[in-house]
Write a structure and sequence with these properties.
This protein is of the alpha/beta class and about 110 residues long. About 45% of the residues lie in helices and about 15% in strands. It has a 4-stranded parallel sheet with strand order 2-1-3-4, with helices on both faces.
Length: about 110
């Protein structure tokens, strides 16, 4: 079992949830970003984003690996930073585009 943090753009929420489920069913503990939970609050305030960003870094610190959700090979600036941070901590880096093949996720 590994502890894995899912990283990527929130526009790939569905893919994050799918791969997170597959990784958990494969016997891993998966830490996911926090998403807006309803249509009435579709975005977060700047203060909330700062808090969530700090907590996401803490999740990476706790993890053995990160899983980068890079649909169509898209990696934004925040995710690039998360990859660099994980690398600095010698964490394993896995990419969604590679895992899709392993899990047959469409």
């Amino acid at each position: 079992m590994k502890v894995m943090t899912v990283c990527g753009s929130l526009k790939f929420k569905d893919e994050m949830m799918k791969i997170g489920m597959q990784l958990e069913l494969a016997g891993n503990a998966v830490l996911l970003p926090i998403f807006p939970v309803n249509e009435e609050t579709p975005t977060f305030t700047e203060e909330e984003l700062a808090i969530l960003g700090r907590m996401h870094i803490e999740k990476i610190k706790l993890s053995d690996a990160i899983v980068v959700i890079n649909v169509n090979n898209y990696i934004g600036n925040s995710t690039k930073y998360e990859i660099e941070f994980a690398q600095s901590l010698k964490k394993e880096i896995l990419y969604y585009t590679d895992l899709v093949k392993d899990f047959s996720i469409n």
